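Researcher: Here's the sequence for the chain we discussed earlier.
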Amino acid sequence: MMKGQLTLILTFVFSNFLFAQEHKDCTTPLVLCGESPFSFTVTEGVGNDDEITDGTCVGTEYNSIWIELNVVNAGDLIFDIMPKNGISDFDFLVLKKESENCDENEVVRCMATGATAGNPNNENCTGNTGLQYGETDIVEEPGCNQTDNNYLAPLEVFHGDRYLLLINNFSDTVGFDLVLGGTAEIHCITTTTNKEIEKADNFDIVSSTVVSDQLIIQTANNIEDGKLYIVNMLGQVVHQQNVRANDLIRFDPLFLSGTHVVLLQAHNQLSSETVIFIK
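Model: Thanks. This is the structure I predict for it:
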């Protein structure tokens, strides 16, 4: 019975988490942490605003997602956007993020090639896309001419730079993988451990919700017996243990990477908090 209850709990938590993580606006991008490849689902729509794209090669948002890339070590940045069905038409914009006002950020790469009816060269303009060594174009316009392909020139990036990546899926809502490459290092910007943490009902994250070394959890004083779970984004339980009131739980060393959810079940109530583990 417990396994069935946990399955229902995880279904509820992850359906709500994934909905909250659609990141369809420039002002609420997904900040990538951990090592690529990253795997994404794509949902319909463009969020609250169809932003930035007017006047660029892509023209409009369509089944979009916004991603933020933070540079921690300088170098060249390349990437591959890889549709899960291998043939979808994905377009993208890369913006240098200088301001929280999206209109003030500079478009530095724009990819809009795609299938054109009756064109035998369409295979060059669908499927995998991104930035790649050997390319010199910084813009590819819509359509698929004989000399077009699906890749643009790499970016030279520096420590502290921030970039926004808008990815459109003009074919359907098939998911994709994002593989980062080059000599630059992209990571999330970590928070300090004295940051004020939003509190859950049954436990607190004493350390930080962005964790590089040690995760510390304090259970509340109003629970008797409970069960603590750490669950990855595939819904797999990677750790579980029994807990009591006022337990101080330390996870050190950590061998996890990427986004996970901490769940505590007690008194038929569930509390959850999202935690990002970085290496």
